[in-house]
Design goal:
Length: 122
């Protein structure tokens, strides 16, 4: 069956760092592009980052640009989100997603993980 499983979430102090991982079992075509989205309490799910198959193209949401880095290891079928300079506004459930095309919108992603909680304390 198709699965995307996030890990690495937890509690971190403001200014700290955290790395999220997403292990995927979807087909290579379906995960040509991988992305991260997040949803904070009382807010809509928002785009965080995406990366193409080769890793040569990346896009980031305005709120995380310069602080977060997305990467992938295709041999391990895993995508990562390295988060630095975390602040309380980054507190959210983070979701991993897969798409056959590079995209920044939720509609383009056909496979989703269950999410992992990231909480940043002040």
């Amino acid at each position: 069956q198709v699965q995307l499983v996030e890990s690495g979430g937890g509690l971190v102090q403001a200014g700290g760092s955290l790395r999220l991982s997403c292990a995927a079992s979807v087909s290579p075509y379906s995960m040509s592009a991988m992305g991260w989205f997040r949803q904070a309490p009382g807010q809509e799910r928002e785009f965080v980052a995406t990366v193409n198959w080769s890793g040569s193209r990346t896009y980031y949401g305005d709120s995380v640009k310069g602080r977060f880095t997305i990467s992938r290891d295709n041999a391990k079928n895993t995508v990562y989100l390295q988060m630095t300079s975390l602040n309380p506004e980054d507190t959210a459930v983070y979701y991993c997603a897969a798409s056959p095309m590079l995209a920044t919108t939720m509609a383009k992603y056909g496979y989703w993980g269950q999410g992992t909680q990231v909480t940043v304390s002040s």
